[in-house]
Specification:
This protein has four domains: 96 residues, no CATH class; 119 residues, no CATH class; 175 residues; 229 residues, Serine Threonine Protein Phosphatase 5, Tetratricopeptide repeat (Alpha Horseshoe), CATH 1.25.40. The strands form six sheets. The protein has a six-stranded antiparallel β-sheet, with no helix packed on it. The N terminus is likely disordered. Helix 4 links the parallel strand 18 and strand 19. It has 24 helices and 24 strands. By secondary structure, it is of the alpha+beta class. The chain starts with a helix and ends with a helix.
């Protein structure tokens, strides 16, 4: 029946672009990452739901899939610092501690740790407990201890080093989300966010629809020096907060010895070492040669203790980077080099108008300035790691600066152009491209990111020339292929640089030809490309990516023009894919959906039915339907949505698609030439999904049109028999009416 078929087909096939926004709760997939891990919420049919918790990395070794153990951060607290050299005490702002059991400890040097219960502080500062946050002051200290005490007596203790001249600390804590959740949902129309929480509304999981752009995950900027889980944690003078429900145990206090020392955690750490060059030119050159996404932090400090403090900073960075690498070198985390400017660098400082002392300057591998802070290196040390947002801001600034330099340079090579476009295309998606790119505020000690204006027409013209120049390539350039795929998917440099969505243009279709020409070579090389040391790539099957981009274009719009204008070009690309024999499941799936939306001049769906019949006869017909589908499913690319959704969804898609094609013959008299084929498709749908009342209704009406009236009545009787509470009420009525008409000869 029509209602069921098209609702299922649309949900299975429609590809939504990054610029679509959901305006209410609907069936589909929602993503959350505000609790430090990626969580997927699927709202399914029949008012069912599923929460999927997943994270981690994997590697493919031959026929084996290896799941790589993640390095646990163990960091439940998040700290943010403000600096004021004139401050005598430190102001602490503990964000929404609710009624949980927290303790705050301070330690000067090697003195004993002094703890306070947060609830005691709150009672003094806010006797009625009316404020959400707790604000209080502590004396200047070297170390801060934060403790969360659970109800079972187990406590998590975190030790943090307090940077010099800190005047304010903001503390937030994220509780674990895994547990026995009694939850409900609320959709915030102002933010397009679905919030899932217990009835109290505290600590909600915040989901956004998978079709909408996803925010960049925020990583804690401050890493604790030590982390330890301690059973029945205590300190001298701490009141016993445990409860005894009837069992009394005698304890000989003379034999009880409590060790209040927090033992170092059992971290695995790679012995990472930085190479510090003795000249600025060598430092820039080393940065360029080691990693395309690596930056150079230049310290300007004329104090006598500068070298000593610089060496201490370098040693600390080596330690922290070693923790990130865990048990072996990983170029992914080796993203900063460092250099201490000296007297020989005065000319360079003058030419670049750097007069503040101390200050920190960040350069890319070509020596371009990306960021400047009027501050010392020690104060900014928490920014210098792979996980910090500052690193992503540098990547974005570098993309702008690099592309601008290449476009303005007459000496820029073809490789320089590809590298510059690839840098921009592979940036992480962001909700707010402007604020993500620029970091400026009234605090002059913070980093100020270099701003670079790019001309959109100049960028588009350079990209067009680059694509034209590579049309006759005999070998594929994988970086160019990756950049093309990002661009045609509305995730590339146009989106990243100008925050604009677009419909496919002539240059895009020329770029698609490049992908089709080299699709086999891309497929053969992409596993090695995706696992390149020190680089992050997620290149999927080129044919699948092209067909997805074509499908997405149908829903795109630009300057008041929709993707409908590209129908002929899209059809031409699909025909190239099919004719070349490279069409995979995703290509056919998108192709059939595209064709199903088109009618011929005579009102028929001849092209759609002809192409589907060819696919059916060559791929699905004959033998066991389930075995044939299983063979196709086993060859699905990992990027295919059905690879994740699973076998049942894949099987249901094929039965639904066969039924949909058959239904067009029932409803459109101009398609009657395909009556015999439609019966074949309809019978197949029921061989895959048995006793489906919608499919039985389709087959019965086809039998009747073919003159097999008794068989039609028997089949329609089965359709009525298998109606249930899940069947649409209007459709159920129609199915019953059709049976009555068949029986009395008025159909």
């Amino acid at each position: 029946m029509r209602n069921f078929i098209w609702s299922l087909l649309l949900s299975a096939l429609a590809v939504f672009t990054s610029f679509s926004q959901t305006k209410g709760i609907e069936k589909g997939t929602y993503l959350s990452n505000n609790k430090g891990q990626k969580i997927k919420l699927n709202l399914l049919d029949d008012n069912k739901y599923e929460l999927v918790f997943y994270s981690g990395e994997y590697a493919i070794k031959g026929d084996s899939l290896l799941f790589i153990k993640n390095t646990p951060s163990g960091n439940s607290f998040d700290l943010a610092f403000k600096v004021d050299k004139k401050a005598k005490n430190i102001k602490v702002n503990f964000v929404d501690p609710s009624y949980y059991s927290f303790y705050v400890g301070t330690q000067k040097g090697k003195e004993e740790v002094k703890y306070q219960r947060l609830s005691d502080i709150r009672s003094k500062q806010d006797p009625n407990w009316t404020a959400t946050n707790i604000e209080f002051e502590i004396e200047k200290t070297d170390f801060l201890y934060l403790v969360y005490e659970e109800y079972d007596g187990k406590s998590d203790v975190f030790k943090y080093e307090i940077p010099k001249d800190v005047s304010e600390i903001t503390i937030t804590y994220e509780l674990a989300v895994l547990g026995d959740l009694k939850i409900f949902g609320f959709f915030d129309k102002n933010t397009n966010e679905l919030r899932i929480s217990e009835k109290s509304g505290l600590n909600p999981l915040v989901f956004t629809n998978e079709k909408d752009p996803q925010p960049v995950k925020k990583i804690s900027k401050v890493i604790p020096l030590e982390t330890k889980s301690i059973e029945k944690w205590t300190y001298p003078g701490k009141e016993d907060s445990s409860y005894d429900y009837g069992t009394v145990t005698a304890v000989d206090t003379a034999l009880t010895v409590t060790d209040f020392t927090i033992a170092p955690p059992a971290y695995n750490q790679y012995n990472f070492k930085l190479k510090i060059e003795n000249s600025l030119n060598k430092a820039i050159s080393a940065t360029k040669d080691s990693n395309k996404n690596k930056f150079l932090g230049v310290c300007i400090d004329s104090k006598k203790t500068a070298k000593e403090r610089f060496d201490f900073f370098v040693k600390d960075q080596e330690t922290q980077t070693g923790y990130s690498m865990y048990d072996g070198y990983n170029a992914l985390y080796d993203v900063f080099n460092y250099y201490l400017a000296g007297a020989e660098d005065k000319k360079w400082l003058k030419n670049n108008k750097i007069t503040d002392d101390p200050s920190v300057v960040v350069l890319n591998g070509k020596g371009d300035i990306l960021a400047v802070a009027k501050s010392d290196l020690e104060t900014q040390k928490y920014h210098f790691n792979y996980y910090d947002d500052f690193y992503r801001k540098l990547l974005r600034a570098d993309a702008f600066v690099s592309l601008n330099s290449v476009l303005k340079s007459k000496k820029a090579s073809d490789a320089d152009l590809i590298d510059a476009f690839n840098k921009a295309a592979t940036l992480e998606a962001s909700y707010d491209y402007g604020s993500e790119y620029s970091l400026e505020n009234g605090n002059t000690t913070e980093f100020v990111i270099t701003k670079t204006a790019l001309d959109k027409k100049e960028v588009a013209q350079a990209w067009k020339k680059l694509i034209e120049a590579h049309q006759k390539d005999k070998q594929v350039n994988m970086y160019l292929a990756e950049t093309i795929i990002k661009e045609i998917s509305n995730l590339g440099f146009t989106k990243q640089l100008f925050n604009e969505d677009k419909i496919l243009n002539d240059t895009d279709f020329l770029a698609i030809d490049y992908l089709l020409k080299h699709s086999e070579e891309i497929e053969n090389n992409r596993a090695a490309f995706n696992t390149k040391a020190g680089e992050i790539h997620a290149l999927n099957n080129a044919i699948s990516e092209v067909s997805n981009a074509l499908q997405q274009n149908l829903y795109a719009s630009q300057d008041g023009v929709t993707g409908e204008m590209n129908k002929e070009k899209i059809n031409s690309v699909y025909k190239k894919i099919i004719a070349s024999g490279k069409g995979n499941f995703d290509a056919y799936r998108n192709y059939f959906y595209y064709l199903s939306q088109i009618q011929e001049n005579d009102g028929s769906n001849a092209t759609y039915l002809k192409e589907f019949n060819t696919y059916f006869d060559s791929t699905l017909a004959g033998g066991s339907p389930i075995e044939k589908l299983d063979a196709i499913f086993s060859k699905l690319d990992s990027s295919s949505s059905y690879s994740y959704d699973g076998w049942n969804s894949f099987k249901d898609y094929h039965s639904s698609t066969a039924n949909s094609a058959a239904w067009t013959v029932v409803t459109n008299q101009m398609n009657i030439n395909y009556l015999k084929d439609a019966i074949k498709w309809s019978e197949y749908s029921l061989a895959v999904t048995k006793n489906n009342p919608y499919y039985l209704d389709t087959l019965a009406q086809l039998y009747y049109k073919d003159g097999q009236k008794q068989k039609a009545i028997e089949t329609q009787t089965l359709a009525v028999k298998y109606l249930d509470a899940n069947t649409d009420e209007v459709t159920a009525t129609e199915i019953k009416e059709v049976l009555t008409k068949m029986q009395n000869g008025t159909y």
